[in-house]
Write a structure and sequence with these properties.
Layout (H helix, E strand, L loop, with lengths): L6 E4 L4 E6 L7 H14 L6 H13 L4 E7 L2 E13 L4 E11 L8 H15 L4 E4 L6 H9 L29
Parallel strand pairs: 5-6
Antiparallel strand pairs: 1-2, 2-3, 3-4, 4-5
Amino acid sequence: MPSSVATVRETDPVAIAVVQMTPSHQVFGQVAALFDDYRARYGQPPSPRFAHDWLHGQLAQHRMTIAAAIHAGQACGFITITVMPASLMLGTAWSIRDLYVAPQQRRSGIAHALLQHVVDDARAAGANRVSVQTEADNGPALRLYTAAGFQPVSGLELLNLSLRAPASRSGVHDRS
């Protein structure tokens, strides 16, 4: 899993600290609120308490890790990561599950700093690869990822088996 050491990255024009989140971190509540905003952006109904409790559980059970960008004592973005076995290579593969920057902080290098934090930690941990998926029409995310060196994977298809009743809203994607 990612290191717990805080790193400071200078971005233009915002200086931020990228720190590993724990449920006891002083800005964990702010990160949970950003996570709820992120969910709402993808059509989910706001649920601040549920989002907070869900993130707390994921961290406590070591199912995911979260790094947060902090500027002037305020959380302004986050990235979530899972580490999975890469059985054929007898190693690990890191998967970026979510990346979100508060709208008023966008285009200031924060997403790049969060992404680079994960890549650096994965490399230091000896991971075989870092993967990310996003919607095909998410141009800003695709530009960020390709600029950082991520490349499309050809020859693979993403298949899901939903274990819940179909959503009643059209156009809502299950990104899990």
